[in-house]
Each structure stands twice: as C-alpha cells, then as structure tokens.
C-alpha cells in the first residue's frame, strides 16, 4: 500500500547515501532538530544514560 510505484535502483540508493535527496543543509537541520527535542537533560544525553541509572 505504501510502496513506490517504481522501486529505486541500487545506484540511486548508493547516491542517496552519499548525497541526501533534500540536500545536506536540510538533513543537518533535521538532525539538529531531533537532538534539541530529546526529552532529557543535556549531560544525561551526552553520557548516554536515562534517569536513575547512575
């Protein structure tokens, strides 16, 4: 139901791993947005732990 009409070739998949379809600026903005929205304190995120594990 949610598949592409024409599947991507291996060449297209490889090129999209090197250069994102929306561009590097959009991809980096997306990653930055996801990092800002992480639901914990910055030092806990940097340490890689959740509440109460240390």
Please name the defining characteristics of this protein:
mainly alpha; 54 residues; 0% strand; 52% helix
Computed Rg: 17 Å
Give the beta-strand count.
0
Distance from N terminus to C terminus (CA atoms, Å) equals: 45 Å
Instruction: Report the biggest beta sheet as strand number plus sense, adding barrel if it closes.
Output: none
Spell the H/E element sequence.
HHH
Tell me what the structure shows.
Helices cover 52% and strands 0% of the residues. The protein has 3 helices and no strands. It has helices at residues 10-18, 24-36, 42-47. The longest helix has 13 residues, at 24-36. The chain is elongated and about 45 Å long.
Would you kindly provide a brief summary of this structure?
With 54 residues, the protein is mostly helical.
Secondary-structure map:
Elements: H1 10-18, H2 24-36, H3 42-47
